[in-house]
Amino acid sequence: MIIKAKIRLDYKDHQDAQVTFKALEPDNKGFIDGEIIDKSIIFRLKGESIASVRRTIDDLILSETIIEKIMVIR
């Protein structure tokens, strides 16, 4: 069975979405497809089990949270 998920992250402007997308890109090559649409990032992922998809989502959210905190500091 293939499990699919889609995550949308919204930002205050296109630049913040772009910075976050580029920062997340190295971690996610080959595992997650993503694109920037206006002020949002859309991630699409799939895996062979709910557990693997959930772990990937957890990693993505953790990484995004760290990037968000760094962006507040700047």
Describe the structure.
The chain has 74 residues and is of the alpha+beta class. It has a single domain (3-73), classed as 2-Layer Sandwich (TATA-Binding Protein). The chain contains two helices and three strands. The chain has a three-stranded antiparallel β-sheet with strand order 1-3-2. A hairpin with a 2-residue loop joins strand 2 and strand 3. The protein starts with a strand and ends with a helix. 9% of the residues are buried.
How many individual helices? 2
Radius of gyration: 12 Å
Domain count: the total is 1
CATH architecture classification? 2-Layer Sandwich
Order of helices and strands: EHEEH
CATH superfamily: Alpha-D-phosphohexomutase, C-terminal domain
Q: Note the overall shape.
A: globular
CATH class category: Alpha Beta
Structural class: alpha+beta
Largest sheet: 3 strands, antiparallel
Strand line-up of the largest beta sheet = 1-3-2
Strand content: 25-35%
Mean pLDDT: 91
CATH topology: TATA-Binding Protein
- Helix share bin: 40-55%
